[in-house]
């Protein structure tokens, strides 16, 4: 819509939708049209939901998770094992681990990974609070569940160094062949890690 | 998020975003997280924009376009040529023609195409109002700019029949090789249409 063919409200909606990950200008236009066309079933509920999100969603001051409670519902849950802190880069990683249902510990969301080229140093991540939390006497283990990327692993290395003084056990996720993975399609790094960490049957 | 790990507001936002075209459950989660993370630059403006859209966007009673004015800004524009009505399936098609800048006529949005299997008959489309408009004495030509799909073309056929009584000239877009198209990659239908409608140089 380079020319003015509709009110600025529609154009603004398209431009904002285009800034969501996964949507480009073309799919943002399609999304805007779907919203306009399905006013009562989609546009009104989504407008309400985003308004609610603006009013209610907060970042947990303890772990960096997002929720409508503060501290977040995971930090408030008495059934969670507080002796382990699982450190993740983003809230999406926390959601992925919760969907898999493998963790019953507390979490800590760093808010990203170290990236000196983008000006993201340790002070830009939620690391200081992690050191504080890890120093508590009931914490026995910190699991660094960061992405198996270069950035994730160098962040893990840095965080592990910072945690050394706490005297807490520091661990990381196992690396190897993913379940259902075919060797022929795996990269050399994964195969090397899987070989190195082979287990006796 | 099968388990309750965050407030229902976040889950609801993810579910609604997943209903946008182009977003699935996974990308909806990513979009929700991007919104939460970029609260002031993205979440708040988008919540506002959708709220504005709910309050202001209306369907034009004349042509079926969506706008914040009623009749829409295209119908109100005195520089538009009212002797031609360009009929499109959806508002997105109108936007595409306007982006291309090829039309300076008035539009008529049908709101879809005939699809008997989905229960979409002529009464579900904005056809009756088109017949009314086409009968006006200043209208000389109706261009059926419908998609070159089976559904689009059968809808065009039906609309052309309905328009026969108005005594107005009815036309359709040319079909052929798209600009930049390579013959080797085109389907047989397109090649047949291009051959049949070949032009003398």
Can you walk through the features of this model?
Two copies of one chain form a homodimer. The first copy, chain A, has 201 residues and is of the alpha/beta class. Chain A has two domains: 8-56, Helicase, Ruva Protein, domain 3 (Orthogonal Bundle); 66-172, Dna Topoisomerase Vi A Subunit, Chain: A, domain 2 (3-Layer(aba) Sandwich). Chain A has eight helices and six strands. In chain A, the strands form two sheets. A four-stranded parallel sheet of chain A has the order 4-3-5-6. In chain A, β5, α7 (150-163) and β6 (169-172) form a beta-alpha-beta unit. The mean pLDDT of chain A is 91. At the A-B interface, α1, α2, α3, β2 and α5 of A face α1, α2, α3, β2 and α5 of B.
- Judged by helices, strands and strand pairing, the structural class of chain A is alpha/beta
CATH level 3 topology of the largest domain in chain A: Dna Topoisomerase Vi A Subunit, Chain: A, domain 2
Shape of chain A: globular
Number of alpha- plus pi-helical segments of chain A: 8
| H/E element order of chain A | HHHEEHEHEHEHEH
- Low-pLDDT runs of chain A: none
> Judging by the overall fold, what is the CATH architecture of the largest domain in chain A?
3-Layer(aba) Sandwich
Multimer state: homodimer
What's the count of strands of chain A?
A: 6
Summarize the amount of helix of chain A as a percent range.
Answer: 40-55%
> How much of the sequence of chain A is in beta strands?
5-15%
Mean pLDDT of chain A: 91
Largest sheet of chain A: 4 strands, parallel
Which chain pair has the greatest contact? A-B, 58 and 58 residues
> How far is it from the N-terminal to the C-terminal residue of chain A, by CA?
63 Å
* Strand order, sheet with most strands of chain A: 4-3-5-6
Count of distinct structural domains of chain A? 2
């Amino acid at each position: 819509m380079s020319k003015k063919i509709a009110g600025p409200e529609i154009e603004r909606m398209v431009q904002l939708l285009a800034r969501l990950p996964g949507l480009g200008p073309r799919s943002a236009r399609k999304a805007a049209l779907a919203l306009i066309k399905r006013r009562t079933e989609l546009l009104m509920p989504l407008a309400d939901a985003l308004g609610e999100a603006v009013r209610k969603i907060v970042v947990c001051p303890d772990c960096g998770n997002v929720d409508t409670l503060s501290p977040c519902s995971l930090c408030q849950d008495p059934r969670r094992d507080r002796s382990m802190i699982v450190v993740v880069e983003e809230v999406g990683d926390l959601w992925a681990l919760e969907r898999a249902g493998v963790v019953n510990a507390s979490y800590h969301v760093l808010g990203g990974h170290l990236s000196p080229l983008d000006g993201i140093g340790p002070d830009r991540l939620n690391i200081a609070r992690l050191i504080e939390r890890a120093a508590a006497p009931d914490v026995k283990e910190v699991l660094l569940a960061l992405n198996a990327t270069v950035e994730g692993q160098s962040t893990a290395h840095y965080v592990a160094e910072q945690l050394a003084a706490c005297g807490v056990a520091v661990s990381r996720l196992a690396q190897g062949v993913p379940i259902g993975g075919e060797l022929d399609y795996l990269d050399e790094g994964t195969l090397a890690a899987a070989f190195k960490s082979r287990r006796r049957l």
